[in-house]
Each structure stands twice: as structure tokens, then as C-alpha cells.
Amino acid sequence: MRGRWHLRVNAIVVAWLVAAAVVAAGHRAVPQATWLMLHLLLLGAASTAILIWSAHFAEAVRRRPLPGGHRAQAARLALHNAGALAVVAGLLTGTWPAVVGGATAVGTAALWHAGTLVAQGRGALGVRLGWTARYFVASGVALPVGAGLGALLARPDLTGELASRAYVAHVTVMLLGWVGLTVVGALVTLWPTMLRVQLHPDAARAGTHGLVVLVLALTTTLAGTASGSLPVAGAGIALYLVGLVRVAWPWAAGARDRPPTTFAAQSVGLGVVWLGLAVATWSVGLATAPSWDVAHARFAGLIAPLAVGFTAQVLLGALAHLGPMILGGGPSAVRAAMAVLERGAGARLLLVNGGLALFVAPVPSLVRVGTSMLVLGALVATPVLLVRAVVVSRRRARAAQGGPTLVPVADLATARRRPEPRRPMGPTVAAAAALALVVAGAVAADPAAAGLGTSSAAGAAATGRVVEVEVEARDMRFEPSSVTVDAGDSLVLVVTNVDTAVHDLVLDSGASSGRMAPGATVRVEVGVVGRALDGWCSVAGHRQMGMLFDVVVRGGGDGAASASEGGTGDADGGAAGSAGVASSAADAMDLRGDPADDVRPYDPALAQAPAGTTHRVTLDVTEVEREVAPGARQALWTFGGTTPGPTLRGKVGDTFVVTLRNDGSLGHSIDFHAGAVAPDEVTRTIEPGESLTYTFTATRAGIWTYHCSTSPMSLHIANGMFGAVIIDPPDLPRVDREYLLVQSELYLGEQGGIADATKIGAERPDAVVFNGYANQYDRTPLPARVGERVRLWVLDAGPNRPTSFHVVGGQFDTVFAEGAYLLGGPGGPGAAGGPGDGTGGAQSLALAPAQGGFVELSFSEPGTYPFVSHLVVDAERGARGTLAVRP
């Protein structure tokens, strides 16, 4: 009965793990993938497992069932999982009430669980290890606090320091309180069982001391975040480390006497090591953080490794140990299930922990991408083996029911002397080779970012002198931007990022700071310098914005010339978005060709403004690769997965509450021209995984652009980060058809790469397009009928080219531009009752970048009416389409 119960409820855990793995594998196409992966793992799989197994351990150590039995436990699990699903759905859809409702359900289930444990403990006095269940009670109290803080973070109007303080508190309570306390309490008894050793004599005292210290540490950290005191919060995290060391001392003694040999024990042990390292790093990070924003960034940087290194490894290790025992079926079935779970154990552990170590190290981004996929594969293997172990265990159990099997006495004697089988080394060696191959491939693809390049010494004899220079990255510049040293001197650059965006400093010798979060300081050991060196920030577009650094050498001969003046530096340096790529996507572009099979036209039809006066919108920054012209593909940065981004529409006086969530790989921002607000806070750049809320009230009518304003702004816009906000003029008449056309330019880099920043700076577009794809409405005309009134909204998103919008064969009787009627409209020029005799017309709508308007016309004859930018060269570059008018 117990085995069937655990098999059923742990299937929920496996389902959450599978969902997290699916999102991880397809994260590029999933909005808010990082947030979603973490919550599927932590709020879904780990939290469900905690409710299941803390109940199991409490019943085991107290030797009595929980009040209400499995029926009440099933109700708590159902409430928790329903709440977790509501939180996920609410965050993904931007529905804050759903988040609040889900968080309430999650917190209620945890408090119910804690109360049940308290009630059970009243009748279990005198039980030797019954006190360990107090850890589960404390963790059950922590979860509602963490869930409440999570709901607070989901509020669209929570920004600035308050949001950062809430984030630090939320992460602390959830990971160190809810998960951490449960794991520590369970390992007091589980760890000796895994090692097959006696409980350490100091275990009970260490456990009780540790619980007091850990709870006090969490309380101190919460007090620090509530009061805004970074030192107090940092002291709380440091105190947590003290408590963790105290309670784990007997575990280390047991492992010293009998080192862990099974996958389960090694996975759990390594998970605890990751927890200790993360807590130590966090305590230092909080204590030295100059602001809560920096503390937020430092906490966020370790969330994913901690979730995988600690939570996932402990969860999978515990399931691997407990699963076969709970399934039962006799010794043969248990051994068979455990043997299944030991398959490739060394390889899985090496891939997970080696991959995570590389992921958190200052390595090129390509190394992180490759190792993260290896880690994912290794993690997924364990749930697959768990399912296989269930099948094998059941099969062995059924075979055992057929009666005893006679075994020769000689075989029994041999079995007693048989040592534990050694793991085959082949899979482990293959795992090490896979990690090495990923690193080698990433280094070969981007040697400068990996710290490889032409030697800086250039044969110069070392003088023994060391020159140390402090360099700051701020406002798209390095300060100072150059340094002069004597040939043979050793150079050390102490680089500090005082900006609000991520930067790095890469030299053409291969020396590199690695990506630096805001507030970070890195020492770059350049070594002996005998030639001039060029340096730059390798973040996309930053080099083109002027983030350059020069090392000038005195007395170095020919090599002392600046690398940019004929030295040995690489003119492109591998910087993303630079010119000079080996093969531009423009070379493969054929404007007369056919689109790829997966290309779908951007729907230009406009819906009416939605009802209500407050519009809540969530825009997810995502990165997608798609065709932008026949034969040419581009890696786009987008709002909401499309270029242009989603169109917002409303009326004068409406309020827009827009939540921007960055699920990209670098910093982005948003600027709404439709809102008249101070830009300091709302247009700031947010890093991957962060979000902000931009609230504005539309006080003036027109069609307004929104775009990313992160430097270099021209690159971010040219790479797809723009969209339209339409605020209807008062008394805007209804028409039969309404379309939106957003003009922009393509500056194609390499095939499948981002836009070419050098072409942007030189204003040399490869194509000019409407709604993100060249000539798409030639192949998919916009429909209309004779006599219908058609309104065409036009926005010039730029970043550089103006437009003169014209419909061939048509004449405009209404023209609206930049908030005013130029022709027609209610009481406007040429309208009935307005100035003029009503016979005037217009042939084009002229717009500069970031300007917009609309034109209206009707057609007296059926036919095909082209619309173009009448800057004719741009029409020939792709800024054209057709209206198909039927009778």
C-alpha cells in the first residue's frame, strides 16, 4: 500500500521535472524561460517532493502516522499543485490576481502541513529522533512568507530598491528556508543511512543547535531586507553558513569514515557542497554590495547554479535512494532497482558538477551554452532511470512470488566474499571528453573571448616592473581609454563596471575580464607588453558605440604602433554586430525570390481599441532567428517574439501598465513615446531575468513608436526591437478596413546573425521593409472592396530612413500626421464644414524616423494597387506591397 502511494504521488514530481526539462530544452522559444524553469523545478518538483517526503520522515522518526492519513496528505498536495499552477499561469499571462490566489493556496497548504506535523508531535514524546521534524515545521512556516514575497514581486508597480530588497528576501526564504531547512532536517537521519554508518554521537546536539542558528539567520536576513540594511542582511546569510557548518559536521565525519560510493549519496553530498559555496558567496556579496540593486544582481547570478547544483541534485539523489526501498518487492527487487540507478552514475555526476563549475566560471558565453545542455542531459537521465527502475523492480517482485530459487552452496560462499562492483570508467571518461570538447569548440569559435590571441610580449625582454592601472567602464566608454607603458613592463588592469549594464574588456592578446555585472571589479593580468594592444567591450554593439581601449608601448619598435594603425590587432575582434563578416546574409538575399516555407506574413489588420481605461500588458524580450527577406535570416531581438512587437491601442486618457520581462541574453530596455514620464527609472536597462514596469497615461492622440533604448540604440532598433502604440483621436470615425504598416530597415550581418552595426553607422541598409519582411504584401496583398473606406496607419520605426508613403492609383482624402489632421478629418482642412472647399487631396504621407500618422482613401474600381515608400530606392529595396481591391 505504501509503495503504491509513493509511486503515485512521486509521479507528480517526475511530471514537474519533465516540464522543467522541456522548457530548458526549448528555452529560446519560451517566454520567461529562466523564471519558468526555476519555478517548475523549485515550486513544482522540489516543493511537491518536500511535502511528500517530509511527511514520510516525520512518520518514520516519530513512529506514528500523520493525522488524517493519506487522504489529508493528498488534499494538501492537490492544493499546493493547484496553487503552483496558478502562480505559473498568472506570471506568464501577467494576471496578478491569479498569482496572489496561487501564492495563497501554496502558503495555506504549507501551513496546513506544518500544523499537522505539530499535532503529530504531541503524541510522539520521548522518541529519540522525533525532534528532527521541527525542521519540517520551520520550513512549512517559511513557505507562506516566501510565497507572499513572490506575489509582491509580481506586482507591476514594484520597482527600484524595494523590488531588489523583496527579491533578496524571497530567494533567501524560499531556497534557504523552505528548501534548505527541509533538506538539513532530512539529512540528519538520511545521510547515515545512505553511507550505512551509525548515527554520529554529536548528531542530535549539532542538529538542535543548527536549527536554532539557521532560524535566527533567516530572521536576521529578513530584518535586514525589511529595514533596508545591507550589513544586517549580509550578517544573516553569514550566520546561516555558521549554522550549516555546525549541523553538517557529523555528516562530514561519517563521510570521512566511509566515503559515499553510490550515486544517491554522492549526488546528495555534492548538492550540500553547492549549498555551502553559494551561501558563502552570497554572504560576501551582500556584505560588500554598494546598493540593493547590486545585491539583487549578485543573488540572481547564482540562482540557476544553486537550483540545479543543490536542489536538483539533492532531490534526484534522495529519490534514487528512497525509491527502490519504498517500492519494496524483496531484496532482489531493491538491488535490481538500485543497479539501474547506478548506470552511468560517474558520468552523470561529472557532467552536472563539472558543467555547473564551468557555467559559473568567467568563461565565454559559448562555453556556458554548451555545458548547460550537457548538464540538462545528465539531469534528465536520472528521472528516466527512475521510471526504468520501477519497471525492473516490479518485474523482479513478480518473479520472486513464484517461490524460492535454489542456489548452490558454493555460489553463496562466493557471493559473501564478493566486493561491491566497481563502476565502469568508460562513461565517466566519455563525459570528461564531452566537457573538454565543448570547451575546445567554444574557444575555437571565439578565441579572444576565451583569453587567447597573439602574445602581448612580442619578444620584448621583461623589465621586472609591474604597472597597475584602474579602468572604469561607464557610459559606453572606458576611463581612461588608453594607457602607456614601457616595452617589457608587466601590465595589470583593474577593471570596474560602474555602469548599470553588463560590460567586459577584451584585448587582442586574448586577455579578458569576462562579463562583469554592474558593480563588479576584475583584475586582468595582461602580462609582459612589447607591442601595442587594442581593447574593446565585446557586448553586442558596445564597441561600435566607442567602448575602446588602447595600450601604447614606448620603445617597442614597429610593434609599438597602435594595433588599429597597422599593428597585429584584429580589426573586428570577434565583436558581435561588426562589419567584415565572412559571409553576409545580404549575399544570399533575393528580393524576387520566394519566402521559406515557415514564413508567415505579419498580420497588418488592426482591432479596435479594447474596452476599459486601464490596459495591462506584458512584453517578453525574446530572441528568435527567422527569415527577414527571401534567402536572408537574422537573429532578432524582439518584444513578444514578433517584429514589429505587439501593437498597443487605446484612447486619450487611458492608462497603460506595461511589464517588460527580459528573457534575452543581454540587457534591454523600452521607451514609449506615447508616455510623457521621466525616463530615469522606466527606461533603464534591465539584465536577463529581470523585469520592470512602465506606467503611462496617454494624454495625446497619434501613432507612437516604442523601442529599446539601450546603447547602441540604433543596433537594438535595427535588430527588431520596436513597435507601435495607437492612441485614437477623439471622434475617430469607423472605417471598413484598418491596417498598420511599420517601416524599418535591415542591416544584415552574417547569415543567422544579428544586424551589422557598421552598416547601421554608415546608413547603408540592405533592405527597407514593412512589418519586418521585405515585399511580404506583394505575395499576400491586403484585401479591400470597391467603395470601402480604408485607413492605413503608417509608422516609421527607422532607425535611420524616412519614408514618403504612397498608394499607386489612389488619392488620400484624409491625412493625419503627428497628432493633427493635415487633410480631412472632423473639422479638419478640406473636410465638410472645415477650411477649404473639400476638393483637396494628397498623394503621400511624409514621415521622418519615429513619426507616424494615417491616411484614408476608397477605391472606385477593382484592381491591384501597389503601396510603396516613394523614396524609390527604398521601394526597390523591399518597402512595397499591394492592396487587392475586389468588386
UniProtKB/TrEMBL annotation:
GO molecular function: copper ion binding; nitrite reductase (NO-forming) activity
Domain Plastocyanin-like intervals: 621-730
Keywords: Copper, Membrane, Metal-binding, Oxidoreductase, Repeat, Transmembrane, Transmembrane helix
Domain spans labelled EfeO-type cupredoxin-like: 457-526
Cofactor: Cu(2+); Cu(+)
Transmembrane segments annotated in the record for this chain: 7-27, 33-53, 74-92, 131-154, 166-191, 203-224, 230-249, 261-282, 302-328, 373-391, 425-445
Catalytic activity: nitric oxide + Fe(III)-[cytochrome c] + H2O = Fe(II)-[cytochrome c] + nitrite + 2 H(+)
Tagged with keyword Cytoplasm: no
Region listing for Disordered, in residue ranges: 559-579
InterPro entries referenced in this protein's UniProt entry, alphabetically: Cu-oxidase-like_N, Cu-oxidase_fam, Cupredoxin, EfeO_Cupredoxin, NO2-reductase_Cu
Keyword Repeat: yes
EC number: 1.7.2.1
Biased composition (Gly residues): 566-577
Positions annotated to bind Cu cation: 668, 673, 707-708, 716, 721, 870
Protein family according to the UniProt entry: Belongs to the multicopper oxidase family.
Record note on quaternary structure: Homotrimer.
This protein's name: Copper-containing nitrite reductase
Organism the protein comes from: Cellulomonas fimi
